[in-house]
Amino acid sequence: MYHSRLGQQQTNLAGGPLETLDHLSKVVVGLLNGTRVKGYIEDFSSLETSFNLLPRDDPRGGQPTKIEMRLVKAVFFVLEFDGLPEDNLLPHPNPPASGRSIEVTFRDGEKIVGKTMGYSPSRFGFFLYPASLRDNNVRIFVVTKNTRQVRLL
Question: How many other CB atoms are there within 10 angstroms of residue 35's CB atom?
Fold first, then answer.
């Protein structure tokens, strides 16, 4: 058994390798130009100026795309790329953290509401946990300078 760059490699019952994506985060990246890019992130750091987005369809073998944080409004860590069905009855795996309730309004008018423990207008960004327990977003990294308004509730 060994660890590879894109997943733990283990032996399956037939004796061949079995790769998992357990340590990759499924994300939808909201860009300032209005587009959304879906893929996987390994080792996301809010302190870096960029990150590599692994392709949605081939995270192990596809070519990563370098995403510059200055072009990002938010990184949505999601359960499913295409959202959850309206009648989702499953509880959220990570209920909102304790912290301050806030409403974030982005430059394009999109609003999200949740809780944070790390918001400061002087910080580069912060994590927001959705208010809804049935949200597709597990957590959201918001780039502070790319918001129009952050309001404490």
Answer: 9
